[in-house]
Design a protein that fits this description.
Elements (H helix, E strand, L loop, with lengths): L36 E7 L3 H4 L3 H11 L4 E7 L3 H10 L17 E5 L6 H10 L15 E5 L15 E3 L6 H13 L5 H9 L4 E2 L5 E4 L5 E5 L5 E2 L27 E4 L1 E2 L10 H4 L4 E2 L2 H15 L3 E5 L9 H12 L5 E3 L10 H7 L8 E5 L3 H6 L6 H13 L4 E8 L6 H21 L5 E8 L16 H15 L5 E4 L2 H11 L5 H11 L12 H11 L4 H4 L14 E2 L4 H12 L60 E9 L8 H15 L15 E3 L8 E11 L5 H9 L6 E9 L6 H4 E10 L9 H14 L4 E6 L2 E6 L4 E7 L3 E7 L8 H8 L4 H5 L1 E10 L5
Parallel strand pairs: 1-2, 1-3, 3-4, 4-5, 9-19, 10-13, 13-14, 15-16, 16-17, 17-18, 22-29
Antiparallel strand pairs: 5-6, 7-8, 11-12, 20-22, 20-23, 21-22, 24-28, 24-29, 25-26, 27-28
Length: about 850
Amino acid sequence: MSLCPGKDDSILSQVRRPARYLGSEINAARAPQEGDLRVGLSFPDHYEIGMSHLGMAILYDCLNRTAGVFAERVFLPDTDLEAHLRARRAPLTTLETRTPLDRLDVLGFSLAYELTYTNVLAILDLGQIPLHGEERQRRHPLILAGGPCAFNPEPLSPFIDAFVIGDAEYLLPQICLLVREWKTSDATREDLLRRLDRLDSVYVPSLFSPCSDPNRRLISLSGRTAPVRKAVVEDLDRAPFPETPIVPFARIVHDRISIEVARGCPHGCRFCQASVLYRPVRERSPGRILQIADKSLLATGYEELSLLSLSIGDYSRLVSLVQDLMARVENKRVALSLPSLRVGSLDREVVCQIRKVRKTGFTLAPEAASARLRNAVNKEIDEEELFRSARLLASLGWRSLKLYFMIGLPTETEEDVDQIVALASRIRGEALRAKPGSFQVTINVSTFVPKAHTPFQWHPQLPPREAERRQTHLKRAIRRTGFRLKWHDANVSFLEGLFARGDRRTASLLEEAYRLGCSRDGWTEHLRFDLWQKALDKTGFSPQECLNPVPDPAAPLPWHWIDPGVSPAFLLREYEKALRSEAAPFHCAGDCSGCGHCSGSESPGPTRFSSPTRLCQDSPESAPKENPRPAAAMGVDGLLRVRVRYAKEASAVYLSHLETLTALQRALRRSGLPIAFTLGENPHPRIALSPALPLGMESLSEYVDIWLARAISAEAVANSLAKELPPGLRVLSAQPVACGAPSLEESVVWMEYEVRFCQDEPGEPSVREQLKGDVENFLAGRSSIVEIRSEGKISFVDLRPSVRDLTLLDGPIVRLQLQKIHGNLPSPTRVLDALFASRESRRTGRHVRKTQTVFQHGKP
């Protein structure tokens, strides 16, 4: 790599949203100790998806608490970075230490969605790790996989060394320590796999071969004598959980603190795989939840907290928990949100508490619109509860509601599909009856995909063309109703179904599709269904083998040796009831429903908390930090305004203006300073930044105005903020500013930039002489007209009047001063491109740093 700034500055300067690849976020692991086992944890999708996955965050925390283990994150890069890596044959690396993946000891994948399977292959390939386990040598990392999709491991079996089945909080550290011990021995890779296979909840596919009947359907697994029973964490309070989660620079899908309040679901919806895989129900105590919330907010500065559970409305202490949480966070303007709610579980007190800070969205999940179909899938709800929920939300100020339905459920008819619109119309009508005006209903419709280990594992999946026909029928019915309709691509559901119930033969299809160019199949804009069709033709695989009904329910299925704890006999009984549209009360908390999970095992019953006593008081740590130093006089609005000058250097130059704003807001929240908040429905820290700095540019002269609700010295503000800033952001000074003074944007008069160019290359003309000619020509001209394209419009701007000074210094360095003209400051990048437009090397071979910002009257 060149030492010249700008010549080979970084791949990051050439890709979209580079903040995703920095790895230096607040609370990220920093550096391994000598001798640590090096583990990569991968959610096989883009950063913004993977960083939203709580399971990976839990395991990251577990492993980095384990002595002798250092865990890092690995995500699938976006298409531009992937193309860059492939063009240069550069390996994909971890985020934290930039370690090439093939130099890790362990690489583990979290499998939450079947359409990430090609992404798994892409990550292995980009990491220069052989795709097939049989081709890996002792020096290659052990490839693990877990998560809900691991309960049917066969489609990925040739590519994964070992599958972790069930809860991994204790099992994964145990595996890592076993690998660490193996690395100090002379044992072979196969020896390691055999040792792993002896663990109760680990499946090593290379040690077993599937046997098929003449129709190619699975009969048995050669060599496997006992089922692989899932691991179960019995006590969530004792289980590790992240209290200092990573704070991403880039915006992610679920950009908030997420706290798992319960695992498992007390209901028996027949379509739901998660309710089977995560049995039994276990609750985290309110006291432990409050403790996690306190510590997480202090460590992150997040502005929103979410309580997660498969059925959050069934948490036994939800009302008092929400009351306790809001009592702690309301004054800090931290919003509380809940996942989709089971109909009938929406409590008025919970809604009233949530709206104290911000009216976060609500989603209700009827799943099916007719009572008959809800009976078939065992979704017992009272429609009157739906209407009550709509009236409640509308009366308390909500103007929108999301509803979740599925099409293609077993026994569904066209009349059932029509009922979706009818039910949504009644719900909106009830909301408007409670509060006239407008009320937006969004209908989310997915195509049902039968999953392994559910009563519908024997049922056929709706063919793509029929799914599209029903979607079209629904779209027509919704036309002119004013509803918003969102649906899943039928081809996406088709592929999901292939791998949800596929056997080991689907691995060849998967690999062929990847070789043809498939990846990111869950993203509509990236799905190449034509390539999947080509892969199906090339491999000769018949998708109907996975999508058609299973003719003999007694025959073994590809996943039958993975034991989720629920008996096949129970699932079959439930399937037969579904075909009769017969509901059956289910109890995973209380009277046993006979699913087989707890029979003859030591699996715990549900842990529930019913005491009305509040279990956790406010901790001293959560109190705002006080500073007794005297401060400047408060403004007439009772607020103090402080202007902070800071530097933006190193990796922080890859933060966009909005990402910098968010990083500063969260740093202020962490600091404990008495920050003021904006008014309105979405309060946030009241701060304002100086004009946006171009992405990738350094600066020694950035400014932020901070409004405070209590008198405090500028020095104390600077010191408190400096302790909480992420790497690359550095406080330089601070001073009070009159609350009525002009804004930063209005106050700026001119800015100064230092542009450093690379030294001469052998055989090239003198860089200084070239620059001298460019500078003289620009200054001699009366105008410099450039074309600007913005939002489809073209305009022409003269940049010459904005150039206050342009001087060539030694180095070679150019000093550029840009001033406001008609209230506008031009982009320094645009001016430099115009100045050196004739020489491409001048663009890539320069390093720009802002050195000075001058305000009105020469004062900041």
